[in-house]
Amino acid sequence: MLYPIATESRTLTDLNGVWKFMIDRETETVDPASPIPADRRMAVPASFNDQTVDRDVREHSGYFWYEREFSVAKALLNERVVLRFGSATHEAWVYVNGKQAAYHKGGFMPFEAELNEYLEPGKNRLTIRISNLLDHTTLPVGNYSEKKTDDGRLIRNVDENFDFFNYAGLHRPVRLYTTPKTYIQDITIAPEVDLQNGSADVNVSVESGGSFDEIRVTLIDEDGVEVGEAAGAETSISVKQVHLWEPLQAYLYTARVEGVNDGEVVDVYEEPFGIRSVEVKDAQFLINGKPFYFKGFGKHEDTYVNGRGLNEAYNVLDISLMKDMGANSFRTSHYPYSEEMMRLCDREGIVVIDETPAVGLMASFNFDISALERGDFTDDTWEVLDTSEAHEQVLRELVARDKNHASVVMWSIANEAANYADGAYEYFKPLFDLTRSLDPQNRPCTYVNIMMATPKADRSSELVDVLALNRYYGWYVQNGDLKTAEEKTRAELKEWSEKHPEKPIMYTEYGADTVAGFHSPYGEPFSEEYQQEYYQMNSRVFDEFPNFVGEQLWNFADFQTKFGIMRAQGNKKGIFTRSREPKMTVQYLKQRWSSIPEFGYKK
C-alpha cells in the first residue's frame, strides 16, 4: 500500500483536527444516516482516553463515534477520491453521508476506500464507529466479558492480556487524496546488492489500477541526479557505484514512477528507498555483508495526552535521544508503528525490527520454569485462542505496507507467546512460511521468546532466524540478587548457543522498574542505582558470547498501563521518564554503546 503524497497528478487533503465525539452507551441505536448526537470534542490523531477528565470515558470498553464534515473541490470530482486512515483502533465502520464506505478490523494498519459514489456536492459528512473490544480472536489478545446492570444496561469489559494501556481512537492521520482514474496502485522495490563490485540491480514491480500504455521508472539519487531508467511493469535497473543505506548513515534513492497514456504522463508517484542487503549467516546478523550489533530498545507509541496517537515531535526527539547515546535500533513493540515513524527511520538510519500486534498469545502465565522444562505444566493456549485468521491478515498488511523500507531488517511474528505449549509449532509454522513468501526482500524472521520458553521448554525455536529473548533475571526472578541473576543469564545463553549454534542470539527485552529520583546506597530494587547495576551485569554476560548480536533493553521510556498495585502510573522500566527525562543509567549506556561499533564488535 502506497503512502499518500501529493504529486503533479495527485492532491492530498488533511482531515486531522478536532472532531465531534461520543461514547456509545448502547441504550439507544445510533443511526449514521443522521448526524450523531455528539456531546464531546476529540482531537485527531490521538487516543481519546487521555483527552478527558472523565474516568468513565477514559476506561470505556465498547463502541464510540467520531464525526466531521469535509468538502471536495468540484475540479476534483472527476478524479478518483480516496479516504485513507492511518489506523483506527481496533475495529472501524466508516460512513460517508450515512452510507457505509469501509470496514476494517485491526488497530494498527492503514486502510482506505474510494468515495466517488458516496460524495455529494458541497459538504459531506464523515462518520466512524469504532470498537476497542478485544477477545481470543483478536490481536492483541484480550479477555472479554460482559454483564447487565439491574436496569438492563449492558456493560462490556476487556481485561488486557498484555502490559500496556488499551488506548483507542483515530491514532494516525485521516486524509483525502486523489489520483487519476487510471493510477499507480502499488510499487515493490527489491534491490540485489553486489558487494564485491559496489553495484546493485534494483528490481521494481508496479501494479496499476486500470491500464497504461507505458510505465516508466527513473531512479534518482540524493543529489537529484538520474542514475538509471527503464520501462515496464516489471523492471530491473542497474546502479553502478551504489551508495548503500547503512545504520546511522542513511542514503535514500527515489524511484519516480510514471504511468503514460497516449504519450502523456497520467499519474506520478515517488517512492524513497535505500539499497542494502540483510542476511543471517554463521550465527551473525549481516547488513551489507558486515556483522551488525543491535544497540537500542523496545519502545511504545506512548506520550502524555496523545496516548498512542501520532506525535511527530516526540518521534524526532526519541531518535535524537537514541543517536546521542549511541543506539542504532529499536523494535516496534508490540504492534506496527506509524508510517511516519518508519519513513523517519529510513531517513535517519535507524534499524527496525518490525513487529505485529500478536501480543498476549497465552492462556495462562506461569513462572515455574522448572515445571515447564520437566513437562509437568500443561497449557491449552493453542486450543483456547482462535487468532490465526487475524494473524495472517496483519502479516499480509504489514509486509505490504513496510516491504520497501530499508530500515526494516527483520520481521517479528509475535511477542512472548506460549511457545512452550503443545501446538506452538503447528500455530507458528504457517505464519513463518507466509511471511517469507510475502517479503520481496527476504528479510530474516523471528518471534520474541518469553522467559518461560527456555531452551528445554521451547517448542518452535527452530523456525526463527534469530533467537530473540526477553529475559528478566534480576527483576521478575532473582529480584535484588544480581549475583545469582548473572549466573542464570550466563547459563541460559550457553544452553541456547549449544542448542542452536547456527543462530545469532539477542536480547529484545531486559529491564528493571525504576522510580526516577529514588536513590539508594544499597542499590535497592526500584532505585536508579539498581537499574544501572542491573544493566552492567547483563553487559558483562553479553560480551562473553561471540554469537550474541544485540541488546535492546526494555524500555526506552516509562509508559502507561492499566491501573494495578504493580503499576504506579504505569510501567517504570524506561531509562527515560515518560516525558523523556534521563535516569541515571543513561550515562552508563551512552558510554557503553558509544564504544561499541555498529559493525564488527564480536570479532
Strand pairing plus helix content: what structural class?
A: alpha/beta
CATH evolutionary superfamily of the largest domain: Glycosidases
CATH class of the largest domain: Alpha Beta
Q: Helical residue percent?
A: 10-25%
Query: How many β-strands, per DSSP?
Result: 30
Radius of gyration: 25 Å
Mean pLDDT: 97
**Known CATH architecture of the largest domain:** Alpha-Beta Barrel
Stretches where pLDDT is under 50 for at least 5 consecutive residues are none
CATH topology term of the largest domain = TIM Barrel
Q: What sort of overall outline do the alpha carbons produce when their principal axes are compared?
A: globular
Number of helices: 10
Keywords: Glycosidase, Hydrolase
Family: Belongs to the glycosyl hydrolase 2 family.
GO biological process, one term: glucuronoside catabolic process
Protein name: Beta-glucuronidase
Descriptive account of the structure:
- This protein is of the alpha/beta class.
- The protein has three domains: 11-179, Sandwich (Jelly Rolls), CATH 2.60.120; 183-273, Immunoglobulins (Immunoglobulin-like, Sandwich); 293-595, TIM Barrel (Alpha-Beta Barrel).
- Helix content is 18%, strand content 32%.
- The protein has helices at 55-58, 312-324, 339-348, 369-374, 381-384, 388-402, 424-438, 482-499, 528-542, 585-595, and strands at residues 11-14, 17-24, 40-44, 63-71, 80-85, 91-96, 99-105, 111-114, 123-131, 142-148, 154-160, 174-179, 183-194, 199-209, 214-220, 226-231, 234-239, 253-261, 264-273, 278-281, 284-287, 290-291, 294-298, 329-331, 351-355, 408-415, 445-449, 467-470, 505-509, 548-554.
- The strands form seven sheets. An eight-stranded parallel β-barrel has the order 23-24-25-26-27-28-29-30. A six-stranded antiparallel sheet has the order 3-2-4-9-6-7, with no helix packed on it.
- A hairpin with a 4-residue loop joins strand 13 and strand 14 (199-209).
- Helix 9 (528-542) packs parallel to helix 10 (585-595).
- The protein is globular, with a radius of gyration of 25 Å.
- The protein starts with 10 loop residues before the first strand and ends in an 8-residue tail after the last helix.
- 46% of the residues are buried.
- The model has no long low-confidence stretch (mean pLDDT 97).
- Residues 182-276 form the Glycoside hydrolase family 2 immunoglobulin-like beta-sandwich domain.
- Residues 278-596 form the Glycoside hydrolase family 2 catalytic domain.
- It comes from Alkalicoccus urumqiensis.
- One of its GO terms (molecular function) is carbohydrate binding.
